[in-house]
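Note to self: keep these together.
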Amino acid sequence: MKSEPEMNRISRRNRTTDRFMTGIFYAVAGFILLLLLAFVGYTLYNGFAGFTPDMLSFTAEGVGNQLFNTVYLVILALLISVPAGILAGIYLSEYAQDTKMTRFIRICVETLSSLPSIVIGLFGYLVFILMTHARWNLLAGALAVSILCLPLITITTVDAFRALPAEYKEGSLALGATHWESIVHMLLPACIPRIMTGVILAAGRGFGEAAALLYTAGMSTDLNWSNWNLTSPTCPLNPMRPGETLALQIWASRTESIAANSTQIANLCSAILILMVLGFSILARALSRHLDKKATGTAQ
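Structure:
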């Protein structure tokens, strides 16, 4: 048995070590937060320092068309990747047996999420452009971005289902629900908040993607906002037309543009992208909380 003075000395040493490590963790977290705030503040300041309303116009001098293309492409990509990713996650977590093949598929999905976007872009160019004998178009870009988004949503869905207590499924099955009914009416609503995290990450990658779109969506935009014929190449809602996004506009403004305000346009696009990602995250979180309250019966 250790003596009381020795026990007190050990206790003081442990408390000192605990306070020291806690201070280090707080310092690291504070440094990362300050770095993030400095980066966001610097980008927003440079973006709006010389801002004029005509920079957001839907003309060749503004970035309104590129802003619309970015939102439209991300919506198309999410419409493709969210259902496919959720269904794939449900299969891997609820139906697939824990075999070597299943573990291999999971490793492949996780590997796909770490592939360089330029590789996905070249694949999209080969499959969605050359093999279909098509020109650059937004749908090809959305398909390429959906390949990047799919692993994030799939992995998040799998983790969300596996994190649920077993009582959720057992209680639903005990009440006479089938396996699929339990998934749709009990498990999936409970997983919505976690799945929305994957959707937010996927959307953030879609907003800022450039390399994959160079070979698929194209670098030109010619829109006629009075033309709503979906088969027309100038119709804003035509997914088969080329569409330059804000990320591509940044790249072009900093590397190819000879316009006098090219630097300001690139800075403005960067600021808009940050605000778009932030706004989408807030809206997605709000929707997630609303659905969670509705599913648990706590919504007012």
